[in-house]
Amino acid sequence: MTSPQNLLSSVPKRALICGISGQDGGYLARFLLDRGYEVFGTARDAQIALFSNLQLLAIRDRITVISMALNDFRSVLQVISKVQPDEIYNLAGQSSVSLSFEQPVETLESISIGTLNLLEVMRFIGRPVKMYNAGSSECFGNTDGRPADEMTPFRPRSPYAVAKATAHWEVANYREAYTLFACTGILFNHESPLRPERFVTRKIVATACRIAAGSGEKLHLGNISIARDWGWAPEYVHAMWLMLQQELPEDYVIATGQTSTLEEFIDATFSRLGLEWKDYVVHDATLIRPSEIMHSQANPEMAAEKLGWRAKHKMLDVVTMMTDAEIRSNEAKRPATKPPPFEKGGSGGI
Q1: Residue-level pLDDT at 68
Q2: Each residue of 86-132: pLDDT tens digit?
Q3: Does the annotation count 136 as an active-site position?
Q4: SS3 191
Q5: Residue 160 burial (CB count, 10 A)
Q6: Using alpha carbons only, how large is the chain's radius of gyration in Å?
Q7: How many Å apart are CA 21 and CA 93, to the nearest integer?
Q8: d(CA 272, CA 67)
Q9: CB 36 within 8 A of CB 56
Q10: Looking at residue 332, what is its pLDDT?
Q11: Catalytic residue among 138, 170, 191, 235
């Protein structure tokens, strides 16, 4: 493993994060700021984007945001030429597996064309810059219970996975053909309170917390027998950075190495709140995907050996941290209780 950046350098490194408004973009921006980087982030229209995650992390005023359309080569060229980053983190594109079945063209274009434009600009400008590309464990498909590593073949089972597999091989091709420093992190599921509620883990946590507060609702879910490797997102951005600090670019599987079923995730969440999940969860056939990965399992040993990175938090830790954060967030939104009105002649007052 190579030595990390010299934090005492008089000239800070510049990082460009494409997709900074998402979960990973926010945590990565905070991580890089803590290491002395100048951080630039892109959005399709930075003037109207809310960047709510950056606000929640209290770092919005420390980041320069720029409008950029990743599927427009000229836009990408202009931004990279202006910023002149040392490192580019490509976290952009449609990120929902479920939504990709409804919007397959948008998913493929936003991920594959965006990645290709970044690589083409890197080749075109010819200056030293390193690129991290966000891959996905979805590319592996079903591995019949065998842990997936960097040599496991891809068998994507969703438009999202097809798009990510395409971007993965674009990066590999440009790395080999043009000796670019470009690599892909094949990340397994990683969660946090910054996940939008359309992601199943946040949906479970948010709904369970509302139920515990007396909402009276039910939690509608599809197939809860699926199994995934769930990690803690703030740890995974560290692995992204480490990949760009190496002497040679390589692709890495990033995961905890522990697989749990969705039912176990549900049970842990409701148990944390003192509830029995079977009383509140409803099977909803409309939420079943056209094709599904039943069991996802990872072998992250290469990252441990070469990057010195291992996940510290596993599924039960993720449930605890997400649930506690949801409770704190709900309490912060709750209006303060007004004191009873003062009645003349009563014992109220001071």
Answers
A1: 95
A2: 999 999 988 889 899 999 999 999 999 999 999 999 999 988 999 99
A3: yes
A4: strand
A5: 26
A6: 22
A7: 11
A8: 42
A9: no
A10: 86
A11: 138
Q: How far is it, in rounded angstroms, from Cα 292 to Cα 275?
A: 29
DSSP H or E run through 220: strand 219-221
Residue 167, both tokens: 């971007």
Strands 130-134 and 181-187 come out as parallel
- Looking at this protein, which amino acid is placed at residue 313? H
- What's residue 347's pLDDT? 33
Q: Tell me phi and psi for residue 203, to 5 degrees.
A: -60, -45
Alpha carbon distance 21, 145 (integer Å): 34
Q: Can you give the pLDDT at residue 144?
A: 85
Backbone φ, ψ for residue 88 (5° rounding): -120, 130
pLDDT in tens, 250-279: 999 999 999 999 999 999 999 999 999 999
Task: Assign 9 a pLDDT band (cuts: 50, 70, 90).
Answer: low
User: Which SS3 state, helix, strand or coil, does residue 117 take?
Assistant: helix
Dist. CA 94–CA 336, nearest whole Å:
38
Question: How far is Cα 110 from Cα 69, in angstroms, rounded to an integer?
Answer: 9
Whether residue 160 lies in the annotated active site: yes
Which are the contacts of 250, defined by CB distance < 8 A and separation ≥ 6? 150, 183, 243, 306
Strand partners, 64: 40
pLDDT of residue 220 exceeding 90, the answer is yes
For this structure, is 215 an active site residue? Answer: no
**Active-site hit among 27, 89, 160, 280:** 160
Q: Which of 22-26, 164-168, 177-181, 345-349 bottoms out in mean pLDDT, i.e. has the lowest?
A: 345-349
Q: Which of 21, 136, 192, 260 is catalytic?
A: 136
